[in-house]
Sequence to fold (363 residues):
Amino acid sequence: MKKNLLDFDAAGLAGFFETLGEKPFRARQVLRWIHQSGEGDFARMSDLAKGLREKLASAALVEAPTVVGDTAAEDGTRKWLLKVDAANAVEAVFIPETSRGTLCVSSQAGCVLDCAFCSTGKQGFNRNLTTAEIIGQLWLANKELRHGADIARPISNVVMMGMGEPLLNLDNVIPALRLMLDDNAYGLSRRRVTVSTAGVVPGMDRLRDECPVALAVSLHAPNDALRDRLVPLNRKYPLGELLAACNRYLERAPRDFITFEYVMLDGVNDADSHARELAGIAARVRCKFNLIPFNPFPRSDFRRSGAERIARFADILRRAGLTVTTRKTRGDDIAAACGQLAGDVADRTRRSARRLALKEVRA
Ligand code: SAH
Fold:
């Protein structure tokens, strides 16, 4: 069995090179070829000795998921459907803005958490993605975006906000994060890499200890009774424990705040009283709020809060001294919004036929 070199972070690759009888600096050279130059063919790694190139070709390969769908919105947003095996595909989304380019990456095929308002949860859990399948999304997106463009580094930010719960797949997510941060690979600063979690408390502690990056927490409700319904994981890690974990995380976090995501569900969690209750619990953690207007999907039971309701909700939080942004809808010509990523080919065909999805970005 050939080793897929996308599965290794820098230390892992050095270890593999050792088993081949090669020096660590050769591993760094190869890391740069793969991740900085996007090169997957050992024969073209021109500054390696021919013997090493041949040795690598017989023992290893560079294999990313297969692109089976590539949709571009008029505003430059791109979505790739990536096949990871015969039964599973995941989605990665590129969101260009004036001052940054953000790639939204998936961590699992499906999800166990089954949040009431999320389409990924409805499809159930299939499996964890490997490190190669996670970093492979960035590797591929970089290659695709560079193609024919003159931007050397089109992706300035990565958010682990695609399909799946990253903190339930840390064995594979952490090496992928290390590659994102590694100067011989993608060289992103910790502040520009964000992991989003529904609140897996032990995972937050592990991430803090092993690879602290910016953290977003999907809050969605200001009390346990409502959050138990919307985010069933809350029954295991209720708000009190979650907020305590946020404060532990902040001791090592690269940013001095946690981003709280809050999906705006009409008549469910968007009342003035919810906003006031939220301001009360938010006072216990250094945080910023990102309000996400709900994105509908087939058979979803919720409706999006109206624009005025969202503005009023934001206003109450602001008057309590909190920083609030609202994720903005733009481009309705590709299906790629938060909570809509489903990732199977049949579903994609159905959805594009209906043209129902909206693309969401941070305002
Ligand atoms: N499992 C992780 C990351 C994936 S979801 C998490 O829960 O944070 C990324 C964000 O999109 C989360 O805040 C999630 O709650 C939100 N989301 C899910 N479904 C949505 C929907 N239908 N409309 C808007 N946001 C949604």
In short: The two ends are 47 Å apart (CA to CA). The first helix runs from residue 10 to 19. The CA atoms of residues 65 and 133 lie 6 Å apart.
